[in-house]
Amino acid sequence: QRVLRLAEMCRRLQTEEEKVLPFYSSSLAEGEQQEAQRVLEEAPTEPLAQALQDYLGLELFWQLFNKAKLEEQALGLEQQALRERNQQLRELLGQYLAGISGSQEVPGEPKPL
């Protein structure tokens, strides 16, 4: 039930573009795509493959979930880079303000900037 609620929440938050074209095009060649489709249509013989066949309906959910996780990680990396840049700018601003204020402890030292 939790997965179904998450899927419904994801559906409501999708943009119009994602509803029409939710994923990037496949990087497989035409022949590879046909081979993959043929393998998917075959009846599974191994027990694990049979169990996975029961969950094919969740494939779209997992694709959306994985896409969201990748975007979350990318945004986290971008946020960290922005934090670091912000810290650098704060340090530069501090040096600039210290340089123009004229409040130096040792009068003979050159100004920071």
TrEMBL record:
Organism superkingdom: Eukaryota
Protein name, entry field: DRC2 protein
Upper taxonomic lineage: Eukaryota, Metazoa, Chordata, Craniata, Vertebrata
